[in-house]
Structures are given as C-alpha cells and as structure tokens.
Amino acid sequence: MSNTKYILGHFTDPDDLMHGIDKLQENNIKIYDVYTPMPIHGIEDKLGLKRSRLPIAAFCFGLTGTFTAFSMIYYMLVYDWPMNIGGKPAFAMPDFVPVCFELTILFASYGMMFTFFFANHFFPGRAPRVMDLRATNDRFVIAIDAQTNPYPDKINDLLNSAGAVEILHNERKYVSYE
Amino acid sequence: MGTHSHTHNFNEQFEFSGKAKTWSLIAIAIGVLAIVYGFFLDPHVEHRAERTFSNLLLMGYYFTCVCAAGAFFLALQFVAQAGWSAGLLRVPQAFARVLPIASVVLIIIIAAGLLSHNLYHHWTLEGIAEEGHPNYDHLIAGKAGYLNIPFFLARQVIFLGIYSIFAIALARFSYNEDLEGGLNSYNKSFKYSAIFLVIFGFTTPIWSFDTIMSLEAHWFSTMFGWYNFAAMWVSGLCAITLTIILLKKSGYLTWVNENHLHDLGKFIFAFSIFWTYVWFAQFLLIWYANIPEETVYFYKRWEPSYKPWFWINIAINFLAPVLILMTRDAKRKTAVLTFVCIMLLCGHWLDYYMMIMPGTMEENHTFGITEVGIALGFAGLFSFLMLTQLAKKPLVARNHPFLEESLHHHI
After folding, report:
1. Structural domain spans, chain A
2. Spatial contact of B335 and B279, defined as CB atoms under 8 Å apart
C-alpha cells in the first residue's frame, strides 16, 4: 500500500465537478469531501450530507439569552433593589421584553459564531485545516480517502475522464499545517 | 425560452366549477342572510345597525387589504427581481385583479356607514367643530381641517383608486407578456412596481388612520399605520399560500413545490414576528409613558369583556406561528402550512375585531351570527371573485424572464 492518504481531483468548472461526483458515485467510490470556492446549489443532496445542526445550537443559545436577561433584570429590579420608576410596579413585564429580545439575539449570534469556530477548529494561533489551498481560490476539489478506496489508478481514470485538470496524491491530510 | 426538459403544461387553466363554486356561492348567500339578520332581526335592537356596519367595515377592510397585499406582493417581486416566485405570480395577480371591486365594496360600506352615522360618529356629529354648538368637541375641531367628510371620502377614493390602477396595470403587463414575450412587459412592470411601492408605502398608513383609527378620533398613534400594514401583509401572504396549497391539492400548479412553499412559510413566519414587533412597539411606548389620551385605547381593550381576546390575539398571531413554523420541515409540510394559514387568517380577523369593535360597539360588542355570517360571506365573495379572475388566464406567466429559475428553485 502506498503512502497516499488522500487523492484530490482538481476541476476548474463546477459542472465538471458535479459530473465527477456522479462518476465516482456510479463506481461506488466514497467521496470524503468536496471543497469549492463558492457555494454550489444541490451539492449537499448529491453528497448526501446531513443538515447542519447549527440552527439547533442557535435556538438553545437564544433561549439561554432570554433566561439570562430575564433573571438578570428580575434580580436587579425586583429582588435586589426595587425602585419606583414612573409609578410602575417593580416587576414591570413589558419593560423586560426589549432587553430579553436583545440578549436573545446577542447570545444566539455569538453562540452560533463560536460554535461554528469550534466545529471548524478556528482558534487564534491555530493553523486552519485546509486540504487544498487552491480550493479557496480558483479550483473545485474532490477529496477521496485513499486508505479506504484501494484502486488509485481507477480513481485517476475516473477523475480524468470527468475533466479533472490536476490530480494530487497527498501523503498528509492538511497541507496548511506545513 | 430556456430548456424544455420539464413536463409541466404551461397552457393549463384553472377551471372554476364544482365544489369551489358551489361553496363560495353558498358562503355569499350566508353573508347576505347575515346582513339581513344583522339589520332587521338582531334581538339587540338599538345596536343592530352599528353592529352590522362594524362587521361590514371589518370584513370590507380585510377583503381590500388581502387584495392590496396581492398587488404589493407582485410589486415586491418585480422590484426585488425575484426569480423564485415567477411560477406562482398568477395567484397574487388574481388577488390584484379583484382589488378594484374590493375597493368599491369598501367605499360603499364606509360611505353608507358614515352618512347614516353608524360609523365614524366620533367625528361626524353635526356641529362638532363649531364653537358654541352643544356637540362641540375641542379636539375634533382641531383635526377638522383633515378629518372632514368630503376630504375623508376623497382620500379613500384617491388611495384605493391609485392602488387599483397599479394592480390592474401589473396584471395586464403580465398578460401582454404571455402574448408578446420579450422583456418589454417585465421592464414596464419593474418601473410601475417601483412607483407603486413608494406610493403604497406612504399612503397605506394614512389609509389605515382614516379607515380604522378615526373610529376613535381622539386617540392617535403613528405606529398604527405600520401595525395595520403588517396585519395586511401577513394575512395577504396567508391567503396567497392557502390558495396555492388548495390549487396544488386539486392537481394544478405542478411546478410549484415545497421549496416555493418554504419561502412563503418563511415570509409568514418573519412577518408574524414583524407584526408583533410593531404591535408591541405601539403598546410599550403607550404603557410606559402612561399619558391618559394615549392609554385610553388600551384601557378599552383591557376591559373584562375584551381582555381574553387581547391575549388570544397575541397567542394566535405571534406565539403560535413562531413556534409552529420555526423548523425547516414545518415550512415544507403542506398540512402544517395549511393549518397555520387558516389559523392566522382567523387570527387577523380577531386582530381587526380588536381594532374596530372597542371603537364602535364598545362594551356592547358580541360575537354571534352577524360576525360569523358576514365573515363567511366576504370569504365567499373573495373566493368567488378571485377564482373567477384566476380562471381567465393560464396559471403561469409562461414568458416571465425568471420562470426557468423558479422551476429550478431549490433551498
């Protein structure tokens, strides 16, 4: 067995890329992932990707924000230091709404951002995990796990016939770590 | 015209017959009977006319708003150069085509109610603006330059007339496009839509100030116009979505799929929140400032006979759609969307009820044959007129430049 860990097929055109995905799937070659410089419609369905769970995280963060805001205001204005503001009762619910609303949004947006960073290993000082740098620029890249797909020549042929302009056999997963 | 790889029949026309026609005619008959009942048979003799007129105003306004929302939907799609909606534009177009008739109905109701002193009597009493007259009202006298009968009726006619002209023009461009093709109609629609949106945006608040807010002429709120606009837009979207779902159930509109419904569902979800936002913005400021001339509006709606409805209004129009339509799957399921659309259409009836009744019927408001019958009557009238218009032309604008994009819409 060779030292190749991942086979990367480079395409210059998204239609060729979609065609390449079809060809590989027809031949039962499992695709590890696809990297493109721009979103491509319908590619998630084609690759059978599960829907992101980010919205669920957002909902939970949002709810946390609402309860944080509510308990904070309740503690301050009702429990700890009730004040007479314009003759309103201390526990003046309508007043709470804007703050609860704002904190819901704040928590949901920051929570989503940090969840996304966490899931994608974005940390300060950490090299990003990129399998091919040109996929962030002008190339559409299909990555195939060479360890689980044992016929590299066949994969080469399939990628070539689909219109791949370059095929790389990488011995490490993330080139960006160099 | 793009690729022809699909199997849809673009010459398909809606056939208005059978159950749909029978039921809408039955509903109209129920409405007529309810009006007769309201005027002549209602046991509460002293409130007969006012109650019936309040309900007629409610449903006439609702009816006009839904049709105007159809025209607004069209204009919005053209100005945004939206592609996703190209395949379903004939439905809001049918709404827009009914707008002139709805406007006439509303103007007749308003004029009859006003001249018979059953509606708007807070500012139309004789001598209300004459100093020294027993009916003199200082506040109304200050507004008399704006709030007087000729100018009021003129505004109604001008506003509704302008909306109707634009609504008909937008529908006509689309029909011309069917015959001629090319971009000429689309470009004209774009221009007309942009002008219409500016006019509509500035005049609908004034129109709702006139039609609804002047029922309680002492009270005023600048948010009221946007609050009404939000109600109009949500109920219009619900009516459009419901029509599309029912058409699909009858086997029409094969090219409209769950992706389009998803987008409509998002619209309903988002604008239900917007409705609440505007509703609450109005409420919070009035509640917080606690100025008697402003709080009177909510004081009336906080009376024991209105209070439960006050809360149900928020539960139906905010909590329910937000919680039900939050997930992606819910917006893509026809059954869920159908339920939410019907619920919101009833919810916004209640919303209008809460705007109108405390101003007209005050503590004498009731809920019974008149309310249900007139609501059904107008629903039947709307379905009858709208479906008649829909049946006149093919169900798709087949030369719309973005039609191909709409067919492949995927989210």
Report:
1. 6-51+133-177, 54-119
2. no
Burial of B381 from C-beta contacts in 10 A (0-12 / 13-18 / 19+): buried
Question: Which residue of A lies nearest to B291 if distances are taken between CA atoms?
Answer: A86
Element (H, E) at B271: helix B258-289
Write out the two tokens for B204.
């609908």
- Whether ipTM tops 0.90, in short, is no
pTM score, two decimals? 0.91
- DSSP 8-state symbol, B133: S
CB contact under 8 A, A41 and B410: yes
Distance from CA of B288 to the nearest CA of A (A): 8
Per-residue model confidence as pLDDT tens digits over A143-162: 999 888 888 889 999 999 99
- Looking at the predicted structure, is the pLDDT value of residue B5 above 70? no
DSSP of B209-228: HHHTGGGGTT---TTHHHHH
Pick left, alpha or beta for residue A155 (phi over 0 → left; psi -120 to 50 → alpha; otherwise beta). Answer: alpha
Question: What is the second-level CATH architecture of the domain A6-51+133-177?
Answer: 2-Layer Sandwich (3.30)
- Across the interface, do A95 and B280 touch by the CB < 8 Å criterion? no
Chain B residue numbers with beta carbons less than 8 Å from the beta carbon of A97 are 280, 284
